[in-house]
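We store chain and fold; example below:
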Amino acid sequence: MDGSLNLVGLGLAAIGPGVGIGLIFAAFISGVARQPEARGNLQSIAILGFVLAEALFIITVALAFVL
Protein backbone atom coordinates (compact mmCIF):
# COMPACT_ATOMS: atom_id res chain seq x y z
CA MET A 1 0.00 0.00 0.00
CA ASP A 2 2.84 2.41 0.73
CA GLY A 3 4.34 2.08 -2.75
CA SER A 4 1.08 2.92 -4.46
CA LEU A 5 0.60 5.96 -2.24
CA ASN A 6 4.06 7.17 -3.23
CA LEU A 7 3.08 6.95 -6.88
CA VAL A 8 -0.16 8.84 -6.21
CA GLY A 9 1.94 11.55 -4.59
CA LEU A 10 4.23 11.51 -7.61
CA GLY A 11 1.28 12.05 -9.90
CA LEU A 12 0.08 14.96 -7.81
CA ALA A 13 3.60 16.40 -7.69
CA ALA A 14 3.72 16.37 -11.50
CA ILE A 15 1.00 19.00 -11.60
CA GLY A 16 3.24 21.75 -10.19
CA PRO A 17 6.05 21.57 -12.75
CA GLY A 18 3.49 21.12 -15.53
CA VAL A 19 1.73 24.34 -14.60
CA GLY A 20 5.05 26.09 -14.03
CA ILE A 21 6.40 25.14 -17.45
CA GLY A 22 3.16 26.27 -19.05
CA LEU A 23 3.41 29.65 -17.36
CA ILE A 24 7.08 30.03 -18.29
CA PHE A 25 6.50 29.46 -21.98
CA ALA A 26 3.28 31.50 -22.01
CA ALA A 27 5.25 34.45 -20.66
CA PHE A 28 8.02 33.77 -23.19
CA ILE A 29 5.59 33.79 -26.12
CA SER A 30 3.91 36.94 -24.81
CA GLY A 31 7.26 38.67 -24.38
CA VAL A 32 8.44 37.75 -27.87
CA ALA A 33 5.14 38.91 -29.34
CA ARG A 34 5.60 42.30 -27.67
CA GLN A 35 9.32 42.72 -28.37
CA PRO A 36 10.65 40.41 -31.07
CA GLU A 37 14.15 41.88 -30.81
CA ALA A 38 14.48 40.60 -27.22
CA ARG A 39 13.94 36.97 -28.28
CA GLY A 40 17.52 35.85 -27.51
CA ASN A 41 17.48 37.19 -23.96
CA LEU A 42 14.00 35.90 -23.24
CA GLN A 43 14.76 32.47 -24.69
CA SER A 44 17.76 31.90 -22.43
CA ILE A 45 15.73 32.91 -19.37
CA ALA A 46 12.82 30.68 -20.42
CA ILE A 47 15.09 27.67 -20.91
CA LEU A 48 16.71 28.27 -17.52
CA GLY A 49 13.27 28.34 -15.89
CA PHE A 50 12.30 25.16 -17.75
CA VAL A 51 15.43 23.37 -16.55
CA LEU A 52 14.84 24.41 -12.94
CA ALA A 53 11.21 23.29 -13.02
CA GLU A 54 12.16 19.92 -14.53
CA ALA A 55 14.99 19.47 -12.01
CA LEU A 56 12.51 19.81 -9.16
CA PHE A 57 10.30 17.16 -10.75
CA ILE A 58 13.24 14.79 -11.26
CA ILE A 59 14.12 15.14 -7.58
CA THR A 60 10.49 14.34 -6.78
CA VAL A 61 10.63 11.21 -8.93
CA ALA A 62 13.78 10.07 -7.16
CA LEU A 63 12.22 10.62 -3.74
CA ALA A 64 9.06 8.75 -4.75
CA PHE A 65 11.05 5.65 -5.65
CA VAL A 66 13.45 5.89 -2.69
CA LEU A 67 10.73 6.27 -0.09
Observations:
- Residues 39-66 form the longest helix (28 residues).
- The domain at 2-66 is CATH 1.20.20.10 (F1FO ATP Synthase).
- The chain has one domain: 2-66.
- The chain has a mean pLDDT of 89.
